[in-house]
Amino acid sequence: MKEYNLGIIGAGASGFAAAIQANRLHSGMKIALFEHLPRAGKKILATGNGRCNLTNLNALSHDYRNKEFAFAALNKYSPEKVIEFFSSLGLMTFSDTEGRVYPRSNAAASVLDALRFGVDIQKTDLITETEISRIEKQSECFVINQEYKCRKIILAGGGKSSPSQGSDGSVLKLAKALGHKLTPAVPALVPLNSEPDKVKPLKGLRASGVELTLEGEYSEYKSSGEILFTDTGVSGIAAMELASSAERELRNAFDPVLHIDFLPEIDNLSGILEDIINAKEGQPLENLLTGILPKQIGLEILKRAEIFEGNAIIFSDKFSDNMIELLASVIHDFALRITGTRGFANAQVTSGGVNINEINPLTMQSKLIPGLYFSGEIIDVDGGCGGFNLHWAFASGLLAGELND
Ligand SMILES: Cc1cc2nc3c(=O)[nH]c(=O)nc-3n(C[C@H](O)[C@H](O)[C@H](O)COP(=O)(O)OP(=O)(O)OC[C@H]3O[C@@H](n4cnc5c(N)ncnc54)[C@H](O)[C@@H]3O)c2cc1C
Predict the structure, then answer these.
(1) First to last CA, the chain
(2) Nearest to 127 by CA among 104, 103, 100, 145
(3) Helices within 119-259 (DSSP H only)
(4) What is the CATH number of the domain that holds 82?
(5) Whose CA is closest to atom 51 on ligand 1?
(6) What is the mean pLDDT of residues 66-76?
(7) Which protein residue has the closest C-alpha to ligand 1 atom 19?
(8) pLDDT at site 361
(9) Residue 288: which pLDDT band, with cuts at 50, 70 and 90?
(10) Is 14 a domain residue?
(11) Ligand 1 pocket member 160 (CB < 6 A)
């Protein structure tokens, strides 16, 4: 049986950060970094559309799920510290106006290379194509796959999202087998599905600056920004950020409703519509809203307000106050029933995972089993789009890699 001081299950973002940290802080420590895919860090290459949005300067004020638990790691390994960590690996970064941080090369491969070459190969064995399917706790060590003995282990195998890139939920099962409670996992940051006949006419259209409210059974969830209609529903960051809430409602047997406000910044929309109707007197009705919304979205709104009729012409005296009010209310509240999401296969993140109550937030060590640590997406912490999830993976990986009791 091969023996190591530390075994890390999962060579993704958080597993690499943990391995480098443990290398640096614990001289003489022999580490095994296990990965079941033929190549380590496959998911990193797909992040940020191939550019890898590796952190966000606003991560400390971001509204993470289970933020109170996550705060110690986020604060100790702040965005500046994560940038410093990458700088120590020779990676140059830059940030955009939203605080999103990317490698200066704009290539995710640079981030993966920095991590791969940052692992001290004298002290660390990167063991790929090795599925970890069994971990037994013995008095002084953990026995992995009946083949490797490790004094300490870090479970860094991610959640269930994007299984083609390796995170298939198998390490969640290992955590459960070791006695940890799991909070049910749902896909997050994934497009929403709606009734096809309602969204198909809008397929391919984008709307920016919209405000979304997802109406659940007892709660409302908000987001804002850009959406993109697809043939099955609604995508775009603002919609994707509501996906985990939608999934949780659906799993509680409630179909949530997505309310889209296309012009949230306008208070006096009826008055503005009245001016537009007067200005467009005699023009085709289908052009009524082209000055404020993409034409096809405007047409669907006119249909919902029961104003659109074939080749009709705009006659201002045909618009009653009620019709204008109704039109304004549909623009402010275009409702779609949400029937599902595009699932784990298409999700960027998993929401849910190892229950935070059983992990020490100051060390990432299990409160149940000394020597067992967690890092990254396997833990029930997730954030929105913008570098927040990789930030959590790196911050929690760096903290777990300290291996403090
Ligand atoms: C398409 C896409 C784009 C994204 N873009 C961004 C972005 O730009 N910015 C951002 O912040 N976040 C982004 N994310 C989310 C981010 O990638 C994840 O939150 C992050 O990678 C989680 O890191 P992790 O180390 O916890 O898990 P993972 O990166 O999932 O790594 C887990 C590793 O463990 C391995 N593994 C799993 N089970 C086993 C097992 N039983 N035995 C051995 N090995 C195992 C996996 O193969 C994998 O390599 C994106 C996600 C996707 C899918």
Answers:
(1) 26
(2) 145
(3) 170-177, 196-199, 237-240, 243-251
(4) 3.50.50.60
(5) 348
(6) 98
(7) 389
(8) 98
(9) very high
(10) yes
(11) no
* Ligand 1 pocket member 10 (CB < 6 A): yes
33-49 as b/e: b if 16+ CB within 10 A: bbbbbeebbbbbeebbe
> CB of 361 closer than 6 A to ligand 1?
no
212 Cβ contact partners less than 8 Å away, ≥ 6 residues apart: 222, 223, 224, 227, 238, 239, 242, 258, 259, 260, 261
126 Cβ inside 6 Å of ligand 1: no
364 and 333 fall within a common domain: no
Average pLDDT of 131-152? 97
Range of the domain at 44: 2-187+346-400
Decide: 11 in ligand 1 pocket, CB within 6 A: yes
Mean pLDDT is lowest, of 78-92, 172-186, 305-319, 337-351, for 305-319
Binding site membership of 83 for ligand 1 (Cβ less than 6 Å) = no
What's the Rg (C-alpha) of the chain?
25
21-32: pLDDT as tens digits = 999 999 999 999
Mean pLDDT for the chain overall: 96
Please answer whether residues 354 and 380 qualify as being in contact, where contact means their C-beta atoms are separated by less than 8 angstroms: yes
pLDDT tens profile 232-257? 999 999 999 999 999 999 999 999 99
How many independent structural domains does the chain possess?
2
* Whether the CB of 175 sits within 6 Å of ligand 1: no
Candidate from 389, 394, 396, 399 with most ligand 1 atoms within 8 A of CB, to mutate: 389
**Are residues 9 and 47 both part of a single domain?**
yes
56 and 177 share one domain: yes
In-domain check, residue 405: no
* 104, two tokens: 């200066």
Atom of ligand 1 nearest to the CA of 17: 25
Per-residue pLDDT tens over the stretch 306-347: 887 777 888 888 889 999 999 999 999 999 999 999 999 999
Residues 44 and 162 in one domain: yes
Q: State the average pLDDT over residues 66-70.
A: 98
Q: Among 390, 396, 399, name the best residue to mutate to test ligand 1's pocket (greatest count of ligand atoms within 8 A of Cβ).
A: 390
The pLDDT-based confidence of 370 (bands split at 50, 70, 90) is very high
Which residues are paired to 257 by β-bridges?
Answer: 215, 337
Q: Please tell me if the CB atom of residue 60 comes closer than 6 angstroms to any atom of ligand 1.
A: no
Residue pair 59/77 in contact (Cβ under 8 Å)? The answer is: no
Are 224 and 121 found together in one domain?
A: no
* Residue where a domain stops, chosen among 326, 341, 356: 341
